[in-house]
Amino acid sequence: MENLTPVLLLADAAKSFGSVVALANGRIDLQKGEVHALVGENGAGKSTLVKILAGVHAHDSGTFEVAGARVKFRSVADSKAQGISVIYQEPTLFPDLTVAENLFIGRQPKGRSGLISQSSMRQRARTLFAQLGVPIDPDRLAEGLSIADQQIIEIAKAISLDAQVLVMDEPTAALSGSEVDRLFQVVRSLQEKGVAILFISHRFDEVFAISDRITVMRDGSYIGTWNTRETDSNAIVREMVGREITTLFPKEDAAIGEVVLDVRDLTREGVFRNVSLSVSQGEIVGLAGLVGSGRTEVARAIFGVDAYDSGSVLLAGKSLKPGDPKAAIRGGIGFVPEDRRKQGLVLELPVGRNIALTLRNFLARLGVISQSSERSHAKDWGDQLQVKASSLESGVATLSGGNQQKVVLAKWLSTKPSLLIVDEPTRGIDVGTKAEVHRRLSDLAKAGVAVLMISSELPEVLGMSDRIYVMNEGQIRAEISRGKATPENVMEAATSRQKVVG
Amino acid sequence: MPVFLTRLSRVRELPVAVAFVTLVAITATLNPRFLLPQSVKDLLLNATIIAILAAGQAMVIISRNVDLSVGSILGLSGFATGTLFALFPDIPIVLVFLAGIALGAALGAFNGILVVTAGVPSLVITLGTLYVFRGLNNAWAGGTEHFSGDRPKEFSNLSVDTVFGLPIITLLAFAVIAAMAVYLAKFRSGRDFYAIGSDPDAARLFGIPVGRRVLTAFVINGALAGLAGVLYASRFSSVGARTGTGIELDVVAAVVVGGVAIFGGSGTVVGAAIGAFLLTTITSALTALRVDKFWQQAVVGALIISAIVIDRVSTLRNARRLRLEQARESFPALNEGEGR
What we know:
The structure holds two protein chains of two kinds.
Chain A: E1 8-17, E2 20-30, E3 35-39, H1 46-54, E4 61-66, E5 69-70, H2 76-81, E6 84-87, H3 99-104, H4 118-132, H5 147-160, E7 165-169, H6 177-192, E8 196-200, H7 204-210, E9 213-218, E10 221-227, H8 233-241, E11 259-268, E12 272-280, E13 284-289, H9 295-303, E14 310-315, E15 318-319, H10 325-330, E16 333-336, H11 340-344, H12 351-356, H13 360-363, E17 364-365, E18 368-369, H14 371-384, H15 401-413, E19 419-423, H16 431-446, E20 450-454, H17 458-464, E21 467-472, E22 475-481, H18 487-495
Parallel strand pairs in A: 3-8, 3-9, 6-7, 7-8, 13-20, 13-21, 16-19, 19-20
Antiparallel strand pairs in A: 1-2, 1-4, 4-5, 9-10, 11-12, 11-14, 14-15, 17-18, 21-22
Chain B: H1 3-9, H2 14-30, H3 37-62, H4 70-87, H5 93-118, H6 122-141, E1 146-147, H7 153-157, E2 162-163, E3 166-167, H8 168-186, H9 188-198, H10 200-205, H11 210-235, E4 238-239, H12 247-257, H13 269-288, H14 293-330, H15 332-338
Helix pairs in contact in B: 2-13, 3-8, 3-9, 3-11, 3-12, 3-13, 4-5, 4-6, 4-11, 5-6, 5-11, 8-9, 9-11, 12-13, 12-14, 13-14, 14-15
């Protein structure tokens, strides 16, 4: 295999933004028909490398060859012309356009008249979705599609581009188990057709299930490439972090106190039904289930972002006004949402202002916010959570995913919540930061905070939770205590089809 | 709901078209003289210039920009038309049209280049050029006005003669609107404007030449404003330093009322053009019904606000509908209880 000319080769690649070195020494080579995994902590330079392949950034120095010929991309179009397709972690669909148009924008099929043919565009979209086995209506607008569906559309788009190189930047982060299986089937069939696939993921089970080779990056540099069959996840993690990580999920025992959150028969028609759950002081309660089972929706209803049709939410014994997030915050609820870029952060504001956002009323004197107290509070919490930013003034959009999540956490922890709801707290976060987030949650529980944690990752749910509720099709299907929880019984409850509920 | 009804309910021009037809029907019932050929012709003539400007402006707004300088471009082009005829009485009319369009395109290109290179919102840039272009017009025209008497009869007749009962300049406007509509709906580069307006960053990531397209939108819009200036000189008796002042707000109003989202991404040229006809017709209708001038303006204002409210409400309703649809897909077990 090593003797063949790689489909794509990037070696000794460097890229700096001003004084910040994003990529010091990047290297990747892709062979025809292989799935090549790229792993590394956030900030290791993976995203920069992907953007060089995509033509978003041009490399400052290094060798870049496609099928043996030297290239330097100046635009995304250059990259596409060379048969490279990139699926980003954050889907980039146009909300006002139909699904079909999103697939074919810029290359819509034309009819005999030379004009765009809606019908053949629709037809081709249907064919693609049939191939992928997903029932998405090509005529609907992309607005309001779930992240999982958006991801599927991105994949369909790449397939329709007939890409020779497919770069997938954490494509599975938002997919449920069955969706991942379906994706892998598609990946394998592309692989058989000779497509070279670069697969970036934080989930090791997936990396080992799908890849032929694994390249590890750390601190902007290439560390090494291994044949997947000849290595294991412990070795790879060691290379990634440069140190051994013993416990990924260090939930420590904490005294369980009084009930903080008591939800009774909460129902939002068509979304979830008769959801009852409770969380006590010092307790981490896991809310498990597949993507789309209604977990996030329940959390949003509790926090008051969405309305609910019936049922009640009691906070420390007092009923909480529905549909009023302000009342929820006053009552002591903190909510770290799933989509931190859209819902957790104000990307336009700097790190410091983001952290201080929830404290604005508290920091204000006579309605005017004192800049200095805002800064000192932000600094306090930023330091506590070890947010890695060059300063509090740097834009939050420039931070890595893990650091962004720390900013969101800092924002809520600074309100000293009695109940913290976290939705997929470590989605898209590297192993090192992940352990840090887990330790932080564990510390919070120890300090008497009640934590409700939504998570799709079984090891996280099992490792962190004192109790686990499993949701399935909008209902709570099981309540399992820490001692009795196993991967099998949680998955069983999450995936089993609905039986007649007595 | 049958498929075609579902599709129909998603057509953004529908509310404004219905409003237009209703308005004409009611006014005609109350005052039958409203539909006399002469009144209809006046109505069309009055709407023609705004409709052309609205077609161009729609394209700019769809790409998440706005051009407030169109009134000033129209003024310059109109005065240039008068000046050309005054200096060269025998100049071919076609040449005058081309000159007006070229002048408008050049001014539009100036706007576009500033917007694309400076990265400053077009609202600010074109607010600036509104004054710059008007200043040029003032400096050039001073107290001079050119009257229709100086212009060849055939030129003025473009706004008088009719074909199938429609004034020639109105037919010209229809042709422009149709061409723009086909371009934006049926050409790849035309569809790019929607993508850019929907999410400019994603458009860049997707390899759409955002800068070039935005520049194109401003050039075409400028060219249409130039054309509108020439037509203005044909339609009205005089052109001077103040020609077209304030018309940009009527145009933006027409575009918004016509169902083009003010933040870009959706809407059509045809909708914007209907919006132009609706706004003009309302003024005529209220006059025909002898409504006070003050109330005429209030009605137009109310219409703009209701257009935006209707758009917002239908967006929210759509979101709700999609949520329920998705819920039904995800939770088939709940379907039976839904009773739908």
